[in-house]
Amino acid sequence: MAAENAPAGPRPRHRLAAAGTVLLILVGAALLVAARHERSGADTGNRALTDRAATTRVIAEVGDALGRILSYSAADTEATRSAAATALGGEAGEQYRSLTGQLRGWVDDQQLTLTTRVVSAGVVRLTADSAELLVLLDQSARRAEGPPTVTAAQLAVTARLDDGRWLITGLTSL
What we know:
Helix content is about 50%, strand content about 30%. The protein is built from five helices and five strands, in the order αααβααββββ. The chain has a five-stranded antiparallel β-sheet with strand order 1-2-3-4-5.
C-alpha cells in the first residue's frame, strides 16, 4: 500500500510543458543574439551611417562645387574654369577639361548660360578620406534669344578629402 500512495513523479504533460518552455527560451535567446549580431554587422566603416556632421559637410562642399563647375556663361567662362581647377581632381578633372574644350566654342556661338542647382544629394558611402554620393540637379539653359530650358540630371559622384577639403574625383551621369 505504501507504494500506491507514493507520488508517481512529474506527469508526462508537465514534462512536455517544461520542455516547451525551455525550448521557447532558447529560441528567443538565439533570435536576440542573431538580431544583435546583424545590427553590429552593419558596415561600421561607412561614416555616412554614423557621422552626421561629416555627411553634412561632404554634401555641402560637393554640392557647392557642382553648382560652380556646372554653371557657366559665355560672358565668363574663366570663372567656371577656375572653379573646376580647384574642385576637380583625377579622372573628373581630365574629363571636365576635355568636355569644356569641346563646348567652349559652342557656348560662345550660342551665347549660352547654364545655371545648375543641386536639388538633393545623399551620401552612399563615407570613409575618413573618400565619399560616394548620388546627386540630383536642376539645370536651366538660356540662349541669347529664346526662353530658358529646364532639365533634370542625376550624377554619381566620388570625392576624396584632400588637404582638408573635398575634391571631386569622379562624375558619372545616371
